[in-house]
Amino acid sequence: MIDTTELLRQLSQAAGVTGYEDDVRALVREALTPLADEFRTDALGNLIAVQYGEGAEPRPAIMLAAHMDEIGLMVSGFEGSFLRFHTVGGVDLRTLPGQEVTVHGVQPLPGIVASLPPHVLSPEERSKPVPLDKLFIDVGLDAETVRQRVHVGDLITMRRDFLPLAGNYVSGKAFDDRAGIVSLAVCLEMLRGMRHSWDVYAVATTQEEIGLRGATVSAYGLAPDIAIAVDVGFGKQQGVSDSKIVEMDAGPAIAMGPNVHPLMHQRLVATAKRHELKYQTEVIAGASGTDGWAIQVAREGIPTAVLSIPLRYMHTTVETLCTRDIERTGRLMALFIAGLDDAFAADLGLQKGASA
After folding, report:
1. pLDDT tens track for 207-249
2. Residue numbers annotated as active site
3. At CA 60, angle to CA 67 and CA 229, rounded to 5?
4. Looking at residue 193, what DSSP letter applies?
5. Per DSSP, which regions of 90-140 are E strands?
6. The pLDDT of residue 352
7. Average pLDDT of the residues of the chain
8. Which residues pair with 86 in a beta bridge?
9. Which CA distances in Å does 289 have to 203, 208, 258, 283?
10. Which among 89, 128, 213, 263 has the fewest CB atoms less than 10 Å away?
């Protein structure tokens, strides 16, 4: 049985800056190996795990998507013994000063993100976030050695230990969206003990943080009949309005809005109610910013749903969630898939395949 917390810990502490997801992809494949009938990796690095249904061929198919990439940094140059860098993805500059990092050079090097001390800054500079051109990375080596071990273009990841908190809460980096990956594993494990007619494509997508690129190509290549994208939502915390948050430890948020097919939303809600699963509703009135936004418009269009796992402190190294919400998300997807039938396919106007 999957240890949700341990799998999240392993994935969280792996390196996988967007566009360079090899290490985390290997861990995802290892975790999903007992749960999948087939694997493949496409040209953009998406890992596709297939669990076949029992229906007569050609079977309808559902795609489950969660992205495995993380935001990070990249070496852009040298200034003496210090490294200059660019951001990769939506890095919040306010969180960088004092941050521990790993520089992936010839060999991994620990480092720190540093800046001028406040004592030598003007009052105006002290009142603002430190700009990128005033930040640098110190790995503790002299200039010559730095240039031997580090090159322009080397990746830099945030360095943070996974931290269990009280009440099934945990904190760490890259929970966005490796929590979603864990929910896919929970779903596939539960489906192993159930009967389902439709084929299931569980996709760990790449390059979500810079434009949903992995989801775009994988949805086009797979051409599933329907899809569910799993990502994280803004968990309740101080300073965030109630209209933008989802409650912690209250189950997945089932999105409503133009990114979500109404019948997909209705069916997920009905499934949660029937099985007495905790869930909540999230209103996303525009672009969801998730893989679902790209999947929905692939080919001639794919009926799509979006599930959000509540998460605090997004895009920091102390992202915080309740592991029960991951498990609830996986169970909801498994029960939804087990209930897919010809009638629902007909309601959606699907033409290909027929479940047994």
Report:
1. 999 999 999 999 999 999 999 999 999 998 887 777 788 999 9
2. 208
3. 20
4. T
5. 100-104, 108-114, 136-138
6. 53
7. 94
8. 74
9. 17, 9, 12, 13
10. 128
Q: Which residue ranges form the domains of the chain, and what is each CATH number?
A: 4-70+173-348 (3.40.630.10), 72-158 (2.40.30.40)
The residues with which 112 forms a beta bridge, in sequence order, are 100, 138
Per 3-state DSSP, what percentage of the chain is helix, strand, and coil (rounded to 5)?
35, 25, 40
Contact 317, 160 (CB under 8 A): yes
Identify the three-state secondary structure at position 119: helix
Q: For tokens 């949903």, what's the residue? A: 212
Sort 77 into a burial class: Cβ within 10 Å, 0-12 / 13-18 / 19+: exposed
How does strand 72-79 pair with strand 155-158?
A: antiparallel
> What kind and span of H or E run contains 278?
none
Q: Answer yes or no: are the C-beta atoms of 184 and 68 closer than 8 Å.
A: no
What pTM was computed for the model? 0.94
Structure tokens at 203: 């996709």
Three-state secondary structure call for residue 86: strand
